[in-house]
Amino acid sequence: QLQLVESGGDLVQPGGSLRLSCAASGFSLNDYGVGWFRQAPGKEREGILCINGTGSSIIYADSVKGRFTISRDSAKNTVYLEMSNLKLEDTDVYYCAADIRGRCKSWDENDYWGQGTMVTVSS
Questions:
Q1: Helix, coil or strand: residue 39
Q2: Which among 20, 109, 11, 16 has a CA at the least distance from the CA of 69?
Q3: Model confidence pLDDT, tens digit, residues 29-45
Q4: What is the dihedral of CA 49, 36, 93, 29, to 10 degrees?
Q5: φ, ψ (nearest 5 deg) of residue 3
Q6: Among 23, 110, 113, 123, which residue has the least CB neighbours within 10 Å?
Q7: What is the pLDDT of residues 71-107, one digit of tens each?
């Protein structure tokens, strides 16, 4: 079965850090474009960061600049979202999605999508 699975979501205090994982099963993520997105209830899904097939990263959300980074571990077939200095407003469900052609695409234009992992930032 071809799927993406996110993990690593948790309850964390403001200023804390988390690392989210986006693992692929049934196919290799190498050369795929993989984006991280987030969505709060009642709000539109927001693109955060993306890593393309050549390893370049793109930041979509100004609010995460200097705090979030994206990376790929080909050996583990996983893309990570490293989050630091977390703020209350980072509370969301975080999703990853992958494009087979190695591009960074909007949510609906990807080929595979994960089910999300919950991040709650609270004191």
A1: strand
A2: 20
A3: 989 999 999 998 889 99
A4: -160
A5: -160, 160
A6: 123
A7: 999 999 999 999 999 999 999 999 999 999 999 999 9
